[in-house]
Amino acid sequence: MNNKLNLFVKGILDICFFIGVALELATPFGLKYAVNIVIKFLGETTEYARILDHYAYAVVSIMLVGGSALLILYELRKMMKTVINDDCFVQENVTSLVRMSIYAFVITGLKLLRCFVYFTPASLIVAGVFFFAGLFSKVLSLVFDRAVQYKLENDLTI
Predict the structure, then answer these.
(1) How does pLDDT run across 39-78, given as a tens digit for each residue?
(2) How many CA atoms lie within 13 Å of 33's alpha carbon, on the beta-carbon side?
(3) Which of 64, 89, 94, 97 is 20 to 30 A from 141 via CA?
(4) Where is the signal peptide (predicted)?
(5) Residue 104: CB partners within 8 Å, gap ≥ 6?
(6) pTM of the predicted model, to two decimals?
(7) How far is CA 69 from CA 20, 62, 80, 101, in A?
(8) Is 63 exposed, middle or buried (0-12, 13-18, 19+ CB in 10 A)?
(9) Residues ≥6 apart with Cβ < 8 Å to 21
(10) Residue 89 near residue 147, CB atoms below 8 Å
């Protein structure tokens, strides 16, 4: 049962990763279209209309955030392979968790910076979520590092 759940989660991560790659590639072409649809429903006075005033910045910042999110998904997919193989307390997972914390903090910084260019409440919320995700990932990397050390010591005693 556990392995079915692990394979299911890995499948979801794979789907999210490949959809994310497609969205990342579509951003420069589809953002203006998406913003115009939002404006059509919410009106010209919505803060999302300001995206068109800062379109180049919006494309670059969205692609940088999207790239960082894809890197997080990539690291999660690598980690899930070790979980599926029942060998999750390895140094590679510690490295993945540290990288994910860095990517999360990059997203936090980019979203906060965006608030100074054009503000949307979603940017502030996303910044907060990724800040705590970065902290959580950093703490987990320390826990995993300790577990790897215990495992190595235990392997040497046997």
Answers:
(1) 888 887 777 778 888 899 999 999 999 999 999 999 999 9
(2) 5
(3) 64
(4) none
(5) 68, 72, 130, 131, 133, 134, 137
(6) 0.90
(7) 8, 10, 16, 11
(8) middle
(9) 70
(10) yes
